[in-house]
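Blackboard transcription, Thursday session:
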Amino acid sequence: MFGRNKNKPGSSNLAANLRDERLKFEVIVNTIEDGVMLIDNQGDIQLFNPGAAKITGWASAEACGLNTKSVIKLVDSKGLAYEDNVNPLLQVFQQGLAIRENNAQLLTKSDKKIPLSLHVTPLIGENAMVNAAVVVFRDVAEEKAEEQRRADFISTASHEMRTPVAAIEGYLALALNPKVANVDAKARDYLEKAHISTQHLGQLFQDLLTSAKAEDGRLSSRPVVVEMSTYLEQTANDLKFSAEKKGLFMEFVNGSSNTIDARTSSISSRVVQPMYYTFVDPDRLREVVTNLFDNAVKYTDEGKISIGLTGDGDVVQFYVRDTGPGIPAEDVPHLFQKFYRVDNSATRTIGGTGLGLFICRKIVELYNGRIWLESDLGKGSTFFINFPRLTPQQAADKQAAEAGSTELAPISSLASS
Ligand code: ADP
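(Written on the board underneath:)
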């Protein structure tokens, strides 16, 4: 019915039981709505249930015996075919681990694209080799459409609500301006509180809008070649004031000085700082650095905030470090999720939306970067970001390519743009 190696049921009791077992198995596999597929270690399909046939458009009898790559054609959101090294149906044989994939799209037999959720489980033999893999997959078009509707609603609602909130904030600012209005001390106190809350509400709508855009790929981004040493030094300078206002010391630590022995520090001034080129949108990156920095200031009562830059041949790495309360280990894996806030006395009293780090992660991922943190409870936190590093030649080539279509400034000035 669904496989080509169907055993003929025997006549003994054992065989009858076996037949019953088979019957149960067949009923389940044939009735289930999800696609179920068994692939052997040659990549050939050995079982293809009716659910799989319905989703893919391939009849079970047609698909069985064919190579999985010719039946299950996976493409990414841009419509590009999955390379072998990221294709879960092939990778399962290399890795020997179960793989879940929620962002793939399937090209059906009639070349229709449908979003798919896949779960691939290896069947490991006595020789510790992956002998086969079971693939369970589902058409998630409905769920994706529902997600999209939710994101659209959040986008529209926050966009619409930002305007009246901005107006209220403006009027409260006017009422608090002694040149415009006279208010007594008590009323001023109330108005100041209302002003702070309105600012918070405005920030919440702004963050909601940005996170909805980040989720459905509508975040505008104009990446250019950025030289990170100049860029970060400039950004750190701009941010310094808010740290110093709170009595916190602020420093910028540039790459290679870390590697120099303290005893030979006199040499450091003669060290030529490497150029850390990367390809990002400087405005989006500023949002990330500012968010990490604002958090560091917000949650740190005393000590210092450091912004640092380092890297190797492939990677540009920078960090924002503080001497604040730190983050409990159990919260660390959740910190970059939407609306996640650490529930402790230190942060409960401090306002926030829990969206900042989620937005940071989304922006960093736009440029194939990675964000993570290390934290020592009671001692402080360090948020790290890695971006792929461009060689000076790659940076120059990219710039030349951009200059072909638009007039661009030289690399050095882009760095601080
Ligand atoms: P928000 O700060 O608006 O709540 P974020 O997404 O920026 O949202 O941060 C999520 C949570 O992570 C914060 O609520 C706070 O509990 C914790 N956090 C972030 N940065 C720090 C930091 N530097 N030190 C201590 N806790 C932090």
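Lecturer's comment: Confidence is low (pLDDT under 50) at residues 1-11, 257-271, 408-417.
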